[in-house]
Amino acid sequence: HLSTCQGLPGAAMKSLVLVFCLAQLWGCHAVSPPNPGLGYRALNCDDPESEQAALVAMDYLNKNLFRGYKHTLNQIDKVKVWSRRPTGEVFEMEIDTLETTCHALDPTPVANCSVRSLGEHAVEGDCDFRVLKLDGQFTVLFAKCDSSPDSAEDLRKVCPDCPPLAQLNNTKVVHAVEAALTAFNTQTNGSYFQLVEVSRAQIAYRTRMTYVEFAIAATDCVAKEVTDPAKCNLLAEKQYGFCKGSFTEKGPVNGNEKVAVTCTVFPTQQLPVAAGVDDKEGNTAGEEPQPDNSPVATPPANLPEAPVGSGPLLVAAPPLPVPVHRAHYDLRHTFSGAASVESASGEVGKAPNVAQPSVAVAPGPVVQPCPGRIRHFKI
Fold this sequence. Notes:
By secondary structure, the protein is α+β, with helices and mostly antiparallel strands. It has five helices and eleven strands, in the order H-H-E-H-E-E-E-E-H-H-E-E-E-E-E-E.
């Protein structure tokens, strides 16, 4: 085409070349996908939609807890929203949680449970969830969590005299639980209670006091008439309780042992069975988790046989041996492996079919970066 342009002035020639180059650039931009490689949409961690998905995930976690304590949402760390074929979206989330003072078997809604304070040696959870949003409804497809107590160094900074969590199989802890449970059964006019689990303990060596918290279950024996606890059986309709106790050792010169205990007995309750999500061990959420089979110290009392639910909606917490060298019940035991399920059918299946990273999506408005706000405190 140079022959057609030879007669043009120099300025006109330069303008024609510039227009041609701009046209080429426009054509390249038109055929190139925006944000190549981005297969998800970003969402503000504090967006109402993010929080709604997170609260559904937390509800799922607490409904699958049978030991330890309920957890509450503290912070949303990351959110990615993937398109799901053929319909719906999958929220891939990282969430920080905090332990509350409500036991897992306590029917109190988690919104009414107090968060465990830093001075009580707080425990933080770290969870990964995939939550499906389909027709405006959120359902958990995948859950994986772990948890850990705050460091002893940080505890001393907040409260130098506060004792850290003690191992649940510590001999002082075992003895304190035994003494506290015996004291409660001596005081009660109702059923004889057996130990379900030792939930938490702290040992104050300076004051020679051991603080314990533990879960109990009612039996068919009358407390004041028991002669052989081994002959007592759990009630057909399971009834659980939760106790807080303290045990003071004898002093080196004088003094007596002291035991204090308060227990709350929960009304007989039916716990909902979670949708069938299998773990690697073959257990299904909603069925009784299997006891921890690791070696244990001598428990404070004869543990009852694993209770069996009396109806399809009744979930019984299993009796648990005292964990070896653990100071708390790690959330990683709640979901033993990757679990995914298509919620619409309730059938266990593969991970959701989401858009692949090579599939581009249209750029959306710029969102604020994650992580989101801290609702309580950061560990």
